[in-house]
Amino acid sequence: MAPIKRKGNVAEEATTQKRARVGADKKDNKKQKTDALDDTKSKSEASKPTDLSVLRDDEPAFPRGGSSVLTPLERKQIQIQAQKDVLFEQRGSKKSHNVEDDDDEGNDDVNMGDADDTAAKKPRKQRKTKAAKKKADKEASEKKGVRVEGLNFKRIVPGSMILGQVSSINAHDIALSLPNNLTGYVPLTAVSRGLEQKIEKVLNEEDNDDDSDDDSDEDSLNLKNYFYLGQYLRAHVVSVGSNPTDPSSRNRKRIELAVDPRQANSGLSKSDLVENTAVQASVVSVEDHGLVMDLGIEGSDVKGFMSSKEIDRKLEYSSIKEGAVFLCMVTGQNASGNVFKLSANLRNTGSITKSHYLSTAPTINSFLPGTAAEILLMDVTPTGLVGKIMGMLDATVDLVQSGGNSLKEDLTKKYRTGAKVKGRLVCTFPASEPFKVGFSLLDHVIKFSSDDQGPGSSEEAPTISAIVPEATVVKVDPGLGVYVKIGSTKHTGFIHISRLSDGQTESVSADKGPFKLGTTHEARVVGYNTLDNLYLLSCERKVIDQPFIRLEDVTIGAVVKGKVEKLLIGPNGIDGLIVSLADGITGLVPSMHLADAVLQFPEKKFREGMTISARILSVNLEKRQIRLTLKKSLLNSESAIWKDYKDIVPGAQSPGTIVNIQPHGAVVQFYGSVRAFLPVSEMSEAYIKDPSQHFRLGQVLSVHALSVDVSLGRLTVSCKDPSTFTETYKKAFENIRPGLLVTGTVFEKSGDDVLLKLDEFGLVARLDLHHVSDGSTSKQSSLLSKIRVGQKLNELLVLDIQRAHRLIRVTSKASLKKAAKQGSLREDFEDLEEGTEVTGFIRNITFDGIFVEMLGGLVGLVPKRLVSEENVTKPEFGMAVSQTVTATVHSLDTDFRRFILSMRPDEATSAGPKKQAPKKAKEPRASGDNVAVANAVDEGVQTMSDFTFGRIVKCKVQSVKATQVNVQLAENIQGRIDVSEVFDKLEDIKDRKQPLRHFRQKEIMSARILGVHDARNHKFLPVSHRTGKYPVYELSIKPSFLQAANPQPLNLEQVQVGSSWFGFINNIADDSLWINLSPNVRGRMRLMDASDDLSLLADIDKHFPIGSAIEAHVTAVDTEKGRLDLSARKRSDKLSLDDLSVGMVVPGRVTKTTEKQVLMQLSDTVVGAVNLVDMADDYEKANPTVYRKNEVLCACVVGVDKANKRVSLSLRPSRVLSSSLPVQDRELASMKELKVNDVVRGFIRRVADSGLFVALSHDVTAYVRISDLSDSYLKEWKEAFQVDQLVKGRVTLVDPEQNKLQISLKDSVLDPNYKAPVTLRDLKPGQIVTGKVRKVEEFGAFIDVDNSARISGLCHRSEMAEKRVEDARTLFEEGDVVKAKILKIDRAQEKISFGLKASYFKDAEDSESSDEEEDGSEDGVSLDGFGGAEVEESDDEEDEDEDDDVSMGGVDLEDGSEGSGSEESEDDEEMEDAPSKKTGGLGDGGFDWSGNVNDDEDEAAASNSEGEDDSSRKKKKSRKPEIQVDRTGELDANGPQSVADYERLLLGEPDSSLLWLKYMAFQLELGEIEKAREIAERALRTITIGQDTEKLNIWVALLNLENTYGDDETLDDVFKRACQYNDTQEVYERMTSIYIQSGKIEKAEDLFQTALKKKISPTPKFFVNYASFLFDSMAAPDRGRALLPRALQSLPSHTHVETTSKFGQLEFRSQNGDIERGRTVFEGLLSSFPKKIDLWNILLDLEIKNGDAEQVRRLFERVLGIQKGAVAAGTGKKLRPKQAKFFFKKWLDFEEKGGNEKTIEEIKAKAADYVKSLQQE
User: Fold this and answer.
1) Residues 820, 738: Cα–Cα separation, whole Å
2) Cα dihedral angle (1372, 1378, 1380, 1385), rounded to 10 degrees?
3) Angstrom distance (rounded) from CA 1654 to CA 1651
4) pLDDT (tens digit, 9 = 90+) per residue, 97-138?
5) 571-607 pLDDT per residue, tens
6) Does a structural domain hold residue 319?
7) 314 and 178 part of one domain
8) What is the DSSP letter of 589?
9) pTM of the entire structure?
């Protein structure tokens, strides 16, 4: 900075300084300002600046409130000193000052000053008084070097570059989250050159644009089309000041930014654009293969190109618009250097892990925000880091960007001076000297992760305005605020010093005060910064108590308290109230909602300042408006809040307010934007002529929903009581159906429709205008106008019935009524057949075609291509909605129940085009018999009258279906030959499953006419009944029919019971087959009667396909009801209850399965049930769900109750197959077969208040008393037992006479070695126990004894430590695990006194060791190893139950290991295994943290620091045994025993994953799942960067934890995070291993498939592992084999041989493999690679293991080249002598193990011959 001229005019200097600071040109840099001031100075003065000038140019750093921290005396002294300096300077002594000025210039960034105007208006005198102090500060800072400075308003100057993330997108600007909790705004005009041009174009054409173009213009300028939330952008600071357009923000500072590449890339030149440089670019044009980008570098022809494959992952290429801006990475350039290749896929091209960081650069200009670089740390302080880039450019990392705000320890412990770290530039400090940049080490910034981690990202993530009950202080920044951990989550928040309390907080300290480290406070979330990943909180009580923070927090329908802020006065009085709900949030109460009744003088009831209760009616976020209601009927209503159409169901009830009354109904408003229409017919049961006479605006009605259309946002409601019409309407709706002719009386009429009351049914029907009559709309309107209310309308046809909406539509059109009588107006989809002619009315006309509706809402489509030629080109196809039309069924889609209609004669059906019919002026109706036919197949047919019953005509086959042959008789005249009219005898059918397959298309045959086919009932009528222009004739080609003179078709009257017929399957139902004996006769055959071989019923579609022939006999005929029952079973005897006897094995078909039983049908009349106890010989395998419906099984009859017609069956293999099969749970005939002490299993039959009833067998049920359920106390015992649950117990009482059988489920009864819980009488003074602190008071701690019957005692504070303890709460917390000595027992009052002094345990250990040496362990068993007390018991308590849960919390491992030697009990496996659980497993299950089987040793070895640290700890203990450890006593030899022990060990070994895993296991033993999760998360944060193996161990443990105790969502979250932080392939392998271990095979399969699709690990190991999984776990070897071709496609060629070999080995080794396939695989490899000896060796080993000796010998002969017992000439050269020796030795070893002496000698002889052949060569 240049000095200011000081002689004379002081006022001028102040004015000049003020102009320079608040001038209009805010973009000028400091150098430009200095040049402007140099004109007023002499050349001698301009060369070097002075102290005063520098101090004057720098803004003073004001404390909070703007007041000075100096006293008047200090200010005076500094002023005198400053004046002396000025005088000294003016006398010409400049040299020393120049040196000091240089120092000052180098630290200009210390006080960048405040951009506020108030700073510039401060008098000059005040600046002068601070000169000496600032000078001292500058000299001190110069000595320290570069200062760590965070970004704030004072340090941001115009020209700064900052990396930001889009946090919100508004109409006219976007908001960017900047570092250190700052937010900047980018206006619409500062985005890009392309967007500027679009804005100018819109402004220029605004006057000429039509209204229709407004939407497109607004859409083109919608910033949401150009940006997305979370997008990273580099921003250029334009200005820092208040927003002039917002008067409320006059004192608020606003950062104006620009993301235009012309500003964001300022300073960059063409040479600076090297690879990995971050550059901002805007889209110039969107091409086919990529984007042409503008880099904004002026004066050069540099352009950018971004491939379509390199765009941002979150965007679709088609959605990118011209003018959009992206932060890109330079990935290369073309040969000429004018076009640079860019990539906006920042997660990939900007990844530091892939070395995408700037390692070399031509100038420092390349280092702009967004670029990644490596920093050499020069200084590490608790508040940040200082380093250099490439040894030249200074870089700083502040507390927030280093992540130090969430660490408990200082940054100095995490980073060391001289280390290199990789980070990303986030800001520049252009005003600092020397120039420096700001860096970030935050993980999401480094990785450019735009995934939302803030509010709403997960369930644990707090939302904005959420109240956090526990915010724990983890870091204190004395001058700024505190950083807190939000509850038990992983999220971190920041509380500014101004938000710590309602009053003013001067400062905070980490060591003292209310906000010291570790303190917990209640806070409220007020914001979130995306870039910092930091929540903003407030501890101010007024903010916490405030009901709403933002408008978004206001809940529609909520009842709130508010204060009347203002009364709105209008021309008609009070128009409403403005109610203040919270600070800055107000709502409007419209005059309509002031009260239920109309208030005459509302101003008397409401006054400003009064508190009222209101309910939120609606919230409009766009207009920032809230509507309220004060109506008591709405305030006090407990009905559902209707605020969304999708939540409303017909029949629901809610109150609403009438907002509009119309002649035909009223509009009712609810909450939000939900409105409903109340028809006048639904206002009352009585007739209402004028609704305005009965209702008023603002009236509250209780209505219920009739119909809801969510897509259209329509709701119809009713005031009628729904309970009054429920039964009546229900019965009426059952009787009415579409197609009926009804009579009704008009009771309401409108311009569009008429409402009628149907006389017979009492229902309401609607007759639309278009259905009043046929003809034009004017005719229909005329007729409607003549209809009067009360008039009766006859013969109305019911079109459609919508029961849910209580809507019946009727029509009076004569054409539709006629079509209904003729049968062409169809109702069901099943009635339709291709080629049939149907009639309907047009429902809708679209560009694609015409929708034709028939009865019951049946709708078909006439596509545009099938519209008649004369109408296809006309508007609306020459038709109108509701017009009656006739069309032909063209095709049917039975799967989707859709059909296509045709209006073209030449495209009548989908079979293909037909010959064009000759055009006629007008064809007569089909009812005439003289209609001429064209192109008849039979030349003798001339007119329709020739088609008479019994006539034999020729026909041509058009198509062959499964049940019929469609033929053509003439042009547009079709016929059908039912399959039952083809064969006379069953023997004539060559293929019974496909009888019609021998027919061919266009085949001409002779057939006899039977009648006209009726598609409605699939029967045929006489020819005289034909309807329509072109009927479909029913034909027969049976030889007997063709030859008979007067044939008669078969009808139901001719069918007699017992007669035999052959028919054809027409349809398959759930439980029966429908058989056609003729076109008119159809019968029903039950599936059980379809065959004697019930196994055929397992696959109905295969063995009984539609159209197949079947021989049957009649079992029942009912001609009146048209019912015919058939059976195909040969056996005449039918199984009945009388035929069944106990022990009989009969076949049956499964008809139903439930959780309790399986129902089986044995015959027509007999059904049996299989209960759980009869399903399997092993109750654990009893699972009804494994049986499929219609499956045929053999069952054994175990009980027949003829009185109740019940049959009990058994599927036990020992019953059905062979009685010699092993039985796990034997079948009990009676309780006499049981004796006391027998162990039995059974299923709970009933859970009663007195106990359980357990079914042990079919007829044997046992009783379990409540006291026999468990050894431990069960408070809610019923919740622990469920019906059909399998339980195990021991028989305690058998009394056959009184029919009493009791069992006990107690572990102590089941296992004689069970150790009962410790009771008070088992304890004695002096005994050492372990326990858990239950409660802590000032005077002492209450301790629960482990493994006891709820025994608790007190340890007084005087017995806690050797020193005096004032407050026990300072030593212990609830949940701490301790070891205590019993001092005193008061058995009368059941009180125990404990001692925790360390000296107690030293004495106890000495005495215990001496006792054990003298007495051994026979007198008592030490229970310390099992978390309990030391109790003397009998010898039968030596063994522990393997199923007991070992509580690590009470394990005294030192005593346990000394007292449980091998001589104590050889069978005590649990005593030996307990100390060996190094990872601290979850009980006996051996919880595997690693995710790999038997991988505990690997994890232990993976810990780098384990061996050294453990050994050093042990040595220290041995050298200084006298040192006392914490309050719980010294650590025993086997590890820590409390939380404090683990925390102390972790201070010494923070990087030991083994110690962290033990700590997690310790918490899990205590049941603290959440604490174990927190420890895992803490371990991941604590373990040093670079210890990847240690961190992976923690990740795998966390995955195991979530797999066992978490749900799918938590497991998925941890898995995704693990993949981000570790090698993805490794994490996938561990996860699949975890799934397989835990038995979650399906999830393991899904994970394998995911890895395969994403190509996460295309390695041979992955494919082999997947194949092994498919072979062994999934038992799907075919899928495993299919994996090999895919593996060979994905893997490099050099791995193909090894991979193929591994797949071949699987065939040998897997139980599901095929050895022959394996041999084939190896033969293929050996044929291609005969010299690969390793392949021969592998195959030999596999064959040797397989045990086929001959195969092994042949293989040895092949590899050695031996043929027929002799060495073949020339073949021995393929093996080297050493290799041949190896194979001969291997062969000899094989023969020695399994052969005889003869074969051994033969091998030796062959070896000698082999050697000779080699010598001869």
Assistant:
1) 10
2) 80
3) 5
4) 343 333 443 333 333 334 344 333 434 444 444 444 444 444
5) 878 889 999 988 878 999 998 898 988 888 888 888 8
6) yes
7) yes
8) E
9) 0.40
